[in-house]
From TrEMBL:
GO terms for molecular function: clathrin adaptor activity. Its main location: membrane. GO terms for cellular component: AP-2 adaptor complex. Keywords: Coated pit, Endocytosis, Membrane, Protein transport, Transport. Belongs to the adaptor complexes large subunit family. This is AP-2 complex subunit alpha. It is a peripheral membrane protein. It is found in: Membrane, Coated pit.
Length: 932
């Protein structure tokens, strides 16, 4: 294609952008005219599409030529079909309207007997991966995978394409129905096919461990054929290690299931592990040999730990790991520390690991941050009462020079270790306050909340904590988290130290108030509460405190103004009865799971392959072992049922629920004991988005509906409180039994179901029942709560997973009484990023209609201000989100500027809380882009 070569040469010879743009525009005009001609042959279309692709790769927008690319797919000439598929995969995305035009051609190529056409179609499906393609073509991809006539390289691509579709749209692919056929392909003689299928099974087994339980024995047999029988192709020997990729995946697969009960199978696995460890004794010939050998070895050690952490193989592994963590190779040190952390998280005795404590502590100062992270994980897992003080002290010392990327995680782990292994109250207080003083901004809300809970619940701590925190506040250094802790503790327990030298009431007040003007508005509000408690505890400093209340009666912030006015009124009453009642000492907090653990667990997000163990001690991994045992019992029961009459009904359970995950649920049924196990890995119901998105800005409507059941809601919200009426309708002519609803706990929402009058769990034919739910927002959040529904209707239980449309703006009160000067003054005070979140986007739901935009904004509970913006088409709005006692009241300002000519919106949200800005912007963007 000489013309293409000349065009590329011309572009490369352009020395400035203006010349390149001129040449691009000239070529685009030429291509447009050629496409309008309509008399182009396949070769010419291919050439011009190639030019468009080159422009697209350079970053230029291509808004034409898509249909010509689609037409090339139908060509019988390979080079034209190839360019057509290449253009489609580059120019189209999964939500593109033109994808529908590709589906039929792609399906035709999947059915073709030409394996080259099969592969081109599979490439396109894997690269675009949209829901429509998944729904229409997944069955054809599966057919190519299991067909005995398919070539090996077609099967490999089909397996990986199916994997891509499952990861993208797991609710569309019926993988449970295909389990036996897919598992059977693990025995393929071609190692490439076996590797691709094992990769697919590795992902499917994590989501459906019961259905894919047969893969366990297949993985062991494949390992035996490789290591014992030496049955493999010479093409798959990588630096003297036979197919290391397949070995690693088979070993990883074994860790997702409990140790087998069959003694023969356990003996086979032990033999395989011993062979791998023995082979690792050979000195590697080069770096590549070492990498392949170590990859298999470390995964084998993980399997040994999983089977029995106290076995002789694990003892050998501990000695090997001690050598690896001292290696000069960064990768080897990394893998050694990670595997030793796994061992520390499962083994009964930590003594073999403690022998290497000095080396592990030195890893915190490694030149590579990944190694430092693994060293931190290992120290956290190996900590116990005997070495806690050494490890915590070293972590505190290192925290002063640690990378900012690691500080937040280090703070959480230090706080958890100090609480877990504290032998003296004074040591715990010293460590936590030193942590807050050192880490500063990296200390999250969860840390100081937890400190307050523990101090409040332990009388022995209160006096020492008050005295120590006062010393920190007396220093000239400013640390807002320390001010918060100090304000709360001194307000509650300052009277316990009032008679000590240097701790008089006026000195306590001065120590706190010296930092007052440096604090954020939220912290100042907390300190005003501290001051009113000072008046109740120390009447002698009432005059100094009242002057502060008088000063803040006229500030712009509504929260500070309200507190100052109310506290001043209470403090100046004729009697102190009201003041003493309001300022009574806080009662002990109810015992509950530490939020620090939950926060730490959220930081260890899973990739495609879930972590098979939890960072922490042996106790932290006990729940996972229980989950694996449940899987084993379910596998056995399914086998027993298969031998009887009828097919078994298998309920999927999560593979490994960690002890940090919340397991209790708010159940909307009076008989919680009879609730069936609802799988927490259940995918969201297909089509749930329609009702969920619409009800974000409407008070009532249908949340979900299918041929059997309908769920509707009516809502009302006032401040941080909300009430939801959930209506469940049986659309069938048969009774619906065992109807249960469950809402898992939400960290920032307090969800309380009300006891229904009808205590039965049955809905008659064509009937309806109601459940009421009370919702309270306690902090700012971005994720809506989940709703699980189960019912039985002439067969096995049905499960539905939905999202409740309880978004943050539901707790927003609109503000309409604000003039333009006041609005722009507050707008300017908030400034730009990170408090500002702005986006420009196109209306995909059709031409912009201003009345609809107006209704959407009001539906999201914004007060729209009239006459503020000189352009009458622009929208200006304001509201206050009431995020409860923790999040407080957060103002939100909005500007929406529609461009009717270009069908574009510019949306800008400003708020003192950047999470609020980003979340509200995302909600409005999605609704305005596609319509409610």
């Amino acid at each position: 294609m000489r013309g293409l070569l000349v065009f590329i040469s011309d572009i490369r010879n352009c020395r400035v952008r203006e010349l390149e743009e001129k040449r691009i525009n000239k070529e685009m005009a030429n291509i447009r005219s050629k496409f309008k001609d309509g008399s182009l042959n396949g070769y010419q279309k291919k050439k011009y599409v190639c030019k468009l692709l080159y422009m697209y790769i350079l970053g230029w927008d291509i808004d034409f030529g898509h249909l010509e690319a689609v037409n090339l797919i139908s060509s019988t000439v390979y080079s034209e079909k190839q360019i057509g598929y290449l253009a489609v995969t580059l120019l189209f995305h999964e939500n593109s309207d033109l994808v529908r035009l590709v589906v039929n051609s792609t399906k035709k190529d999947l059915d073709d007997m030409n394996e080259i056409n099969n592969c081109l179609a599979l490439h396109a499906i894997a690269n675009i991966g949209g829901r429509e393609m998944a729904e229409s073509l997944a069955t054809d991809v599966h057919r190519l995978l299991i067909s005995p006539t398919s070539k090996s390289f077609v099967k490999k691509k089909a397996a990986l394409t199916l994997l891509r579709l499952f990861r993208k749209h797991p609710d569309v692919i019926p993988v449970t129905d295909w389990a036996d056929r897919i598992i059977g392909l693990m025995d393929e003689y071609d190692l490439g096919v076996a590797l691709s299928v094992t990769t697919l099974v590795l992902t499917l087994a994590q989501s459906f461990p019961v259905e894919y339980g047969g893969c366990y024995e297949k993985a062991v047999n494949r390992m035996k054929r490789t290591l014992v029988d030496r049955d493999y192709s010479l093409d798959y020997i990588y630096y003297k290690v036979p197919t290391p990729w397949l070995q690693v995946k088979c070993l990883r697969l074994l860790q997702y299931y409990p140790p087998p009960e069959d003694p023969k199978l356990r003996e086979d696995i032990s033999e395989l592990l011993q062979i791998i460890i023995t082979n690792s004794q050979d000195a590697p010939k080069n770096v590549q040999h070492s990498n392949a050998q170590n990859a298999v070895l470390f995964e084998a050690i993980n399997v040994a730990i999983h089977l029995d952490s106290n076995s002789t193989i694990c003892a050998q592994a501990a000695a090997l790991l001690g050598r690896f963590i001292s290696s000069k190779e960064t990768n080897v040190r990394y893998l050694g520390l990670e595997t030793m952390a796994h061992l520390a998280a499962c083994v009964d005795s930590l003594e073999p690991i403690k022998r290497h404590q000095e080396t592990i502590l030195m890893s915190l100062r490694d030149k590579d941050i990944s190694v430092r992270r693994r060293g931190l994980d290992l120290l956290y897992s190996m900590c116990d009462t005997s070495n806690a003080k050494i490890i915590v002290s070293e972590l505190l010392r290192y925290l002063q020079v640690a990378d900012y990327a690691m500080r937040e995680e280090m703070v959480l782990k230090i706080a958890i270790l100090a609480e877990k292994f504290a032998t003296a109250y004074s040591w715990y207080v010293d460590i936590i306050l030193q942590l807050i003083s050192t880490a500063g901004e990296q200390v999250g809300e969860e840390v100081w909340f937890r400190v307050v809970q523990i101090v409040t619940n332990n009388d022995e701590l209160q006096e020492y904590a008050a005295k120590t925190v006062l010393n920190y506040l007396g220093s000239p250094q400013y640390n807002e988290t320390m001010v918060k802790v100090g304000g709360y503790i001194l307000g509650e327990f300052g009277h316990l130290i009032a008679n000590y030298p240097g701790c008089s009431p006026i000195e306590q007040f001065n120590a706190v108030h010296s930092k007052f003007n440096l604090c954020s508005l939220q912290t100042r509000a907390l300190l005003l509460t501290t001051y009113v408690k000072f008046i109740n505890l120390f009447p002698e400093i009432k005059g100094q405190v009242l002057s502060v209340f008088n000063q803040y009666r006229y500030v712009l912030d509504s929260e500070l103004q309200q507190r100052a006015c109310e506290y001043l009124a209470i403090s100046t009453m004729p009697t102190d009865d009201m003041l003493q009642t309001v300022c009574e000492e806080m009662p002990p907090f109810p015992e509950r799971e530490s939020t620090l653990l939950l926060k730490l667990n959220q930081k260890h997000g899973d990739t495609e392959d879930k972590r098979v163990w939890v960072i922490g001690g042996k106790e932290a991994n006990m729940e996972r072992q229980e989950g694996l045992k449940r899987i084993a019992s379910m596998r056995m029961s399914s086998v027993d049922s298969a031998g009887g009459n009828g097919s078994p009904t298998i309920v999927n359970t999560p593979l490994a629920s960690t002890p940090l995950a919340i397991t209790s649920t708010a159940t909307l049924s009076p008989r919680a004991a009879s609730i069936p196990v609802i799988p927490t890995n259940l995918p969201l119901a297909q089509g749930y988005e329609l009702g969920f998105n619409r009800l974000q800005c409407f008070k009532e409507g249908v949340l979900y509906e299918d041929g059997q059941i309908q769920l509707s809601i009516k809502t009302e919200y006032h401040g941080s409180q909300g009430r939801i009426g959930l209506y469940i309708s049986n659309k069938t002519p048969f009774p619906m039994t065992n109807v249960f609803l469950q809402i898992p706990p939400h960290a920032q929402l307090n969800i309380q179901p009300q006891q229904p009058e009808d205590t039965s769990n049955t809905i008659g034919p064509q009937s309806q029942t109601q459940r009421l739910i009370q919702v309270e927002c306690v902090d700012v959040y971005s994720s809506a709560p989940d709703l699980f529904c189960t019912y039985t209707l002439n067969g096995p239980p049905e499960f539905i997973h939905l999202k409740l449309p309880v978004v943050l703006t539901k707790f927003q009160e609109p503000i309409e009484a604000m003039d333009g000067a006041n609005f722009f003054k507050r707008w300017g005070q908030l400034g730009g990023p990170p408090r500002e979140s702005q986006i420009i986007f196109k209306s995909e739901g059709g031409p912009i209609q201003l009345p609809i935009a107006d209704a959407v904004l009001r539906g999201y509970r914004f007060g729209l201000l009239q006459g503020v913006d000189p352009n009458p088409n622009n929208f200006v709005g304001a509201g206050v989100v009431d995020a409860g006692t923790t999040g407080g009241k957060v103002g939100v300002l909005l500007r929406l500027e529609p461009n009717l000519e270009q069908n574009m919106y510019r949306l800008t949200i400003r708020s003192p809380n950047e999470l609020v800005s980003d979340h509200v912007r995302a909600l409005l963007e999605r609704t305005l882009m596609y319509g409610a």
